[in-house]
TrEMBL record:
It holds the Pfam family SBDS_N. Residues 89-114 are annotated as: Disordered. It comes from the Eukaryota. Residues 95-105 have a biased composition (Polar residues). This is Ribosome maturation protein SDO1/SBDS N-terminal domain-containing protein. SUPFAM superfamilies: FYSH domain. Residues 4-94 form the Ribosome maturation protein SDO1/SBDS N-terminal domain.
Length: 114
């Protein structure tokens, strides 16, 4: 097991979805065809998260049944999680790109009015 859960990203029709996986090795086994692994052992939490801004990063909200129905044609969370596991991609290292560098942190967020 790793210290941090991995994000499994799925590009939906209208929005992007994320689930969290605790054990990337089990996820890889499952992805490679080992369907004997119970999904409960792979997924951290049985919730599907949505990013309305797009991508794997940003503010994640729990997806509503309407969101699931619009993108997956079902609101059954178990079926949606299985689809994301089958077709999604691991975005564990998507937090920072390798060319990230701080420009000048002392500038902060800009003019704060002080």
């Amino acid at each position: 097991m790793t210290n941090n859960p991995h994000k499994i990203f799925y590009k939906g029709v209208d929005n992007d979805f994320v689930i969290f996986v605790d054990d990337p090795a089990l996820f890889e086994k499952y992805k490679n065809g080992d369907t004997t692994i119970p999904i409960i052992d792979i997924v951290s939490i049985f919730k599907v998260f949505i990013n309305r801004q797009g991508g794997a990063e940003g503010i994640l909200d729990e997806a509503s049944k309407q969101d699931l129905n619009n993108n997956f044609k079902t609101s059954n969370v178990d079926e949606v999680i299985k689809k994301i596991l089958d077709e999604g991609s691991d975005k564990h290292n998507s937090d920072l790109s390798s060319d990230y560098s701080s420009r000048n942190d002392s500038y902060g967020a800009g003019d704060t009015g002080n």
